[in-house]
Design brief:
This protein has 288 residues and is of the alpha+beta class. It is built from 6 helices and 12 strands. Helix 3 packs parallel to helix 4.
């Protein structure tokens, strides 16, 4: 079974990229984030195209912002939208969806950004992650949490830790909340397979960040013991970030039991530029 998570940053804008990519990679389960469409609009846009490719669809969307979906060719049972009793800002946003696909409970998530450390949205992010942990822990043993976590697990998951001082995504409380989620028995399968590699999944559109390979690894696949034991390949499809009209995120691909493309590694194809020296690059949003 091939499982993918991909923040598409508007499924409507990404249609010319998404459908050919599905035909090329042929995933069995796809968790999408930032669909940015209400449920009816998502179905009107994609239901026929996805049905023709054998996918059942579950969506949890809202107009203009957020939005998550699961596409599955291997069953789509017991769908749950959102996080029961989860926090809102002020109301629950379309950031979580769960379903059972071929015996695996899959949670597709778009974790709140946090905006600025110690802001109301930052505290909401921590509360949201705690609620997600409770939901996942109460479920079956065979489970995956995947999506845009908006957290880089360690300093090795950003191009330069110095560039992120004072920013969200890298603070100790965020990383502790992610570690707490993993403590219920979830493995970061990409990092487990590539423990020392430079590997990113997101590059800001601005300032040529992608071409300089100034990125972050914030899109994760976290798998429980029985699922992690089945992993034959785990990699980031960097090719999908190239070309015209890409998302600012690349798909993360995990293959269970078989690996149709092999275990291609974290960088496919090689970066466009060598890694910059530490302390020489700043984030586009950094204060002057």
């Amino acid at each position: 079974m091939r499982i993918v998570t991909w923040n598409v940053n508007s499924v409507k804008q990404r249609m010319p990229r998404l459908l050919p990519w599905l035909d090329e990679r042929r995933p069995d389960v796809v968790c999408l984030q930032e669909t940015k469409l209400a449920d009816d609009a998502f179905r009107a846009l994609l239901d026929t195209e996805l049905a023709d490719r054998g996918y059942q669809v579950a969506v949890n969307g809202e107009t203009q912002w957020n939005g998550v979906a699961i596409l599955s060719r291997v069953g789509l049972d017991d769908v749950v939208l959102g996080i029961p009793d989860g926090p809102g800002f002020p109301h629950q946003e379309a950031r979580a969806i769960a379903a059972t696909c071929d015996g695996v409970r899959i949670h597709g998530v778009y974790v709140p950004n946090g905006r600025e450390p110690d802001s109301d949205h930052y505290r909401y992010k921590l509360d949201w992650l705690a609620a997600l942990r409770r939901q996942v822990e109460s479920g079956p043993e065979a489970r995956i949490v995947c999506g845009d976590m908006n957290i880089a697990p360690t300093d090795a998951d950003v191009f330069d830790p110095d560039a992120y001082v004072g920013q969200t995504h890298v603070t100790d409380p965020e990383r502790a909340a992610l570690a707490d989620l993993q403590s219920i028995g979830l493995h970061d399968v990409v990092r487990d397979r590539w423990p020392t590699e430079r590997v990113f999944s997101y590059w800001d559109y601005r300032a040529g960040m992608f071409h300089q390979d100034l990125g972050m690894r914030i899109d994760l696949v976290l798998a429980s013991d029985p699922v992690a034991a089945r992993v034959k390949a785990a990699w980031i499809d960097r090719k999908a970030r190239k070309g015209t009209g890409p998302s600012d995120h690349a798909p993360v691909i995990v293959d269970l039991d078989t690996a149709p493309d092999g275990d291609l590694g974290p960088v496919v194809p090689p970066p466009s530029a060598p890694a910059a020296r530490r302390g020489t690059k700043k984030l586009p949003q950094a204060k002057k």
